[in-house]
């Protein structure tokens, strides 16, 4: 496998791609039927040799973005940096640094992409700068459509990407025609006019549940009568490995070193894997899914850094997950170890987004005058993000949902074979090999 094919897969979402974390913790289920809280951990290398004799040797798993003469290169580079920043700020804002975190920057940016089409002035400019990585909303619309179409047309993986706008019929008469035309054309979004009552709340949650294949059953706990609208994105992924793990090579009760220094026994999946990446600071691998256009990636520190410290160092060094996988790719076989787990995570992104530089959108001074006609200025009241991830011998299931609530009026603040075992905190995700984008990004800090 060529070095360019050794990039790490980063989640996710869509997706699912990496945004901010709230105070809630994710729960992880291991093979031994224990439910545990996952936290940010960095992966370590051990000398344990797996027995799987079926190395993964996919024929076409390039993880490089498009070639330089392709106009999509600028877009993927811009978004890759933005996706990393979203995940980094989410980790930084997590109240309990031991928590496991999972975001889909893809889902977040796609949801905001719809909203940006209704913004003007500095409100729009901030979102273009800090969420789009400097891309104009017009370019983002085109690129999001390209990514979405690629996912939905996958023949060997199950992707679902859905968007919808729900507006309160007692607050506004309609969404502007210009915005409706754009979100339908580029985001294939539904536009739903409803009373903001319990029936509509149930309808919204059922819509999210359906479009995440039941992995996220509820996105909203309530609808505030004063809210004007909700813009919602949902992403679901189900994919088998290109080469599955052999159950006979699973190590039962393998020790995992949690971020706080304690250990937890987990089921550790093992296999031979073609290609990995390694530098003085990081080591990791990618593992292809069936269509070889998307991969899972996992990486840990070579120097005992936590996932948060790893992301900070990347930012300080002007690197991101994509560049590390590309720059330090190595031709060779690696014996990999990966914990089997299941995780749910949810967070409110208001502070994370503000820390990124998106501040005007959360203030009554925001300019969303293109979005709808109102007697008072519209602004964002709350951004909710929820994710789900399951990793097993056969493959991965993942989902993400993002909700942006809009309100108006006065503001209410709310080469040698190596051993790479993820037996300590590590960063992981789902990676778009062709476009060089981490759709989902998460970290495991503990299995307590």
TrEMBL record:
<comment type="similarity">
    <text>Belongs to the serpin family.</text>
</comment>
<dbReference type="InterPro" id="IPR000215">
    <property type="entry name" value="Serpin_fam"/>
</dbReference>
<feature type="signal peptide">
    <location>
        <begin position="1"/>
        <end position="25"/>
    </location>
</feature>
<feature type="region of interest" description="Disordered">
    <location>
        <begin position="23"/>
        <end position="73"/>
    </location>
</feature>
<dbReference type="InterPro" id="IPR023796">
    <property type="entry name" value="Serpin_dom"/>
</dbReference>
<dbReference type="InterPro" id="IPR042185">
    <property type="entry name" value="Serpin_sf_2"/>
</dbReference>
<keyword id="KW-0732">Signal</keyword>
<dbReference type="GO" id="GO:0004867">
    <property type="term" value="F:serine-type endopeptidase inhibitor activity"/>
</dbReference>
<dbReference type="GO" id="GO:0005615">
    <property type="term" value="C:extracellular space"/>
</dbReference>
<dbReference type="Pfam" id="PF00079">
    <property type="entry name" value="Serpin"/>
</dbReference>
<protein>
    <submittedName>
        <fullName>Serpin B</fullName>
    </submittedName>
</protein>
<feature type="compositionally biased region" description="Low complexity">
    <location>
        <begin position="27"/>
        <end position="71"/>
    </location>
</feature>
<dbReference type="InterPro" id="IPR036186">
    <property type="entry name" value="Serpin_sf"/>
</dbReference>
<dbReference type="InterPro" id="IPR042178">
    <property type="entry name" value="Serpin_sf_1"/>
</dbReference>
<feature type="domain" description="Serpin">
    <location>
        <begin position="87"/>
        <end position="447"/>
    </location>
</feature>
């Amino acid at each position: 496998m060529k070095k360019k094919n050794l990039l790490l897969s980063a989640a996710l979402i869509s997706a699912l791609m990496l945004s901010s974390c709230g105070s809630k913790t994710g729960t992880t289920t291991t093979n031994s039927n224990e439910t545990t809280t996952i936290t940010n951990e960095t992966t370590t290398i051990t000398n344990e040799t797996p027995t799987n004799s079926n190395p993964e040797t996919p024929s076409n798993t390039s993880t490089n973005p498009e070639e330089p003469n392709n106009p999509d290169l600028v877009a993927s580079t811009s978004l890759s940096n933005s996706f990393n920043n979203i995940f980094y700020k989410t980790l930084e804002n997590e109240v309990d640094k031991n928590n496991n975190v999972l975001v889909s920057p893809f889902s977040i940016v796609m949801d905001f992409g719809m909203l940006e089409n209704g913004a003007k002035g500095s409100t729009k400019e901030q979102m273009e700068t800090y969420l789009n990585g400097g891309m104009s909303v017009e370019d983002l619309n085109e690129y999001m459509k390209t990514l979405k179409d690629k996912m939905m047309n996958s023949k060997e993986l199950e992707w679902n990407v859905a968007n919808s706008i729900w507006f309160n019929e007692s607050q506004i008469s309609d969404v502007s025609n210009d915005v409706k035309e754009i979100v339908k054309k580029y985001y294939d979004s539904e536009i739903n006019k409803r009373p903001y009552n319990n029936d509509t709340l149930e309808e919204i949650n059922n819509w999210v549940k359906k479009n995440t294949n039941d992995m996220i059953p509820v996105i909203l706990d309530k609808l505030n009568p004063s809210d004007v609208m909700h813009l919602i994105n949902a992403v679901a992924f189900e994919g088998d490995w290109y080469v599955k793990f052999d159950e006979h090579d699973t190590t039962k009760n393998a020790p995992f070193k949690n971020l706080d220094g304690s250990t937890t026994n987990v089921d550790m999946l093992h296999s031979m894997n073609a290609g990995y990446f390694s530098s003085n600071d990081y080591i990791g691998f990618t593992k292809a899914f069936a269509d070889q256009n998307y991969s899972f990636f996992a990486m840990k520190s070579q120097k005992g850094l936590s996932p948060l410290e790893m992301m900070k160092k990347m930012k300080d060094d002007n690197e991101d997950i994509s560049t590390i996988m590309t720059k330090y790719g190595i031709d060779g076989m690696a014996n990999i170890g990966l914990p089997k787990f299941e995780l749910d995570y949810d967070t409110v992104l208001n502070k994370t987004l503000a820390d990124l530089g998106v501040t005007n959108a959360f203030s009554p001074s925001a300019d969303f005058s293109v979005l709808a006609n109102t007697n008072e200025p519209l602004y964002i009241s709350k951004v909710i993000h929820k994710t789900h991830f399951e990793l097993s011998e056969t493959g991965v299931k993942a989902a993400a949902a993002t909700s942006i609530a809009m309100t108006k009026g006065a503001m209410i603040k709310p080469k040698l074979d190596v051993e790479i075992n993820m037996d300590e905190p590590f960063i992981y995700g789902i990676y778009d090999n062709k476009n060089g984008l981490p759709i989902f990004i998460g970290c495991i800090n503990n299995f307590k």
